[in-house]
Amino acid sequence: MSSLEARRLKHLESAIRAASGEQIVTIERLVAEVASLRVADVALARRTEVTRAERRCPHCGTAGAHLHGQDKNNRQRFRCRTSECRRSFNILTGTPMARARKPEKWGHYLSHMTDHHSVRKITAAGIGVNHTTVWRWRHRFLKAAAQDNTAILSGVIEADETFFVRSCKGHRGWVKGRPPETRAARPRAWGATKRGLSGEQVPVLTALDNAGGVYEAILPSLAAIKVALDGRITAGSVVCSDGTAAYVTAAVKAGAEHRRVVVPTITPVAVKVAPVPTKRRQKGRLGLGRVNAQHGQIKALVNGRCRGVATRYLGNYLGWQRAMLRTGFTGKALLDRALA
Ligand SMILES: [Zn+2]
After folding, report:
1. Cβ neighbours, 10 Å, residue 300
2. In contact, 164 and 206? CB cutoff 8 Å
3. Domains in the chain: how many in total?
4. Which candidate, 62, 137, 63, 57, places its Cα nearest to that of 96?
5. 247: pLDDT confidence band, cut at 50, 70 and 90?
6. Distance in Å, CA 71 to ligand 1 centroid
7. pLDDT tens-digit series, residues 39-84
8. What separation in Å is there between the alpha carbon of 85 and the centre of ligand 1?
9. Is 178 helix (H, G, I), strand (E, B) or coil?
10. Share of the chain above pLDDT 70, in %
11. 2 CA from centroid of ligand 1 (Å)
12. Helices 106-114 & 39-54 angle (0-180, nearest 10)
């Protein structure tokens, strides 16, 4: 900061200190307005302040790194003080935003992302970054959102699994004659080629509790449910599931109670023949309603809005859906998460 700017800032500071109550309200509003337009600037400045105070090396965790000049984007660089590490870093090293450029455009991009615009639409909106960059930014922010996965669940827990067709959407091998899987490429919206469960289906486990905690995991196979839930259930909780052995075992091991919820299978034909009387939902009754609703929302996002996503990115989209569930989901919240 040049000395002239520093002097002007000093003047501004004394002016604010001398301002009337009414003027302070106006200033507050102005600052909030400017900050909302420049979310990335503000988030980066906060991140710089925190990093400067601690100077903790993201590679080895040692605090007190030395200042190490500035990089070509005028960002402060640091160098680890331990002789074994000696690595340099900047404020973004170790975050999903490391090495991402054009931070002045992140705020504009995020406003499109939180409006759920497609990559193509965002590129066309004229932010001034190309299709590939928009795609990469999307996944940087989604990766940040995906880090929020509740570790420990308690109270009334609902757990169930759902399936997604294994996908290599966008894999260059399809057009370059080196397909990633030994099958023909599927035109969009095609399901699996085999009926029922097979290796073509990727199981996703969802467990949620009544405090708003949601845990999700993409499993290698259904046999992994027990391991995935290990250490995530608080003793004394009530676990509701469809009664699959893995859920019962996980509940018993955690010292929780297990309740099997029988979901009646109603076929459209059966409904026609004898309509099932609709019962008012009884308060406190245990069911799998919330976990089913969650699965419905993920399906709508992944298979509906995105028309299928590559399995390697599925975790990011699950994180996006969890982030959307939270209150106060804004571009700023997403950026704060990415820079946390
Ligand atoms: Zn270090």
Report:
1. 12
2. no
3. 1
4. 137
5. very high
6. 18
7. 888 888 888 898 999 999 999 999 999 999 988 877 889 999 999 9
8. 4
9. coil
10. 87
11. 32
12. 120
Question: Helix, strand, coil % (nearest 5) of the chain?
Answer: 45, 15, 40
Per DSSP, 188 falls in state T
- Span from the CA of 136 to the centroid of ligand 1 (angstroms): 28
Rounded CA-CA distance 133/4 in Å is 37
CA 298/CA 283 separation, integer angstroms: 26
pLDDT tens digits, residue range 277-314?
665 555 556 888 889 988 998 888 888 887 788 888 89
Instruction: Using the mean position of ligand 1's atoms as its centre, give its distance from the Cα of residue 178 in Å.
Output: 41
272 occurs within a structural domain: yes
Residues 6+ apart with CB under 8 A from 335: 39, 40, 43, 106, 107, 110, 141
Q: Return the closest-CA partner of residue 156 out of 293, 296, 259.
A: 259
| 95 domain residue, yes or no | no
Q: ∠ CA 71-75-81 to the nearest 5 degrees?
A: 75
Judge whether 22 lies within some domain.
no
Q: Round to whole Å and give the CA distance between 140 and 109.
A: 12
Starting at the edge strand found earlier in the chain, the sheet holding 257-260 runs 214-218, 201-209, 156-165, 238-241, 257-260
Contact between residue 291 and residue 160 where contact means Cβ atoms under 8 Å apart = yes
In a domain, 20, yes or no: no
CA of 89 from ligand 1 middle (Å) equals 9
Distance CA 126, CA 169 (A): 26
Instruction: Give the integer Cα–Cα distance in Å for 66 and 310.
Output: 42
How far apart, in whole angstroms, are the C-alpha atoms of residue 134 and residue 61? 32
* Report for 76-90, 91-105, 136-150: range of highest mean pLDDT: 76-90
Domain coverage including residue 214: 156-309
3-state secondary structure of 58: coil
Question: For residue 56, what are its two tokens?
Answer: 């903790």
DSSP states of 68-105: EEE-TTS-EEEE--STTT--EEETTTTSTTTT---GGG
What's the rounded Cα separation, in Å, for the pair 219 and 150?
16
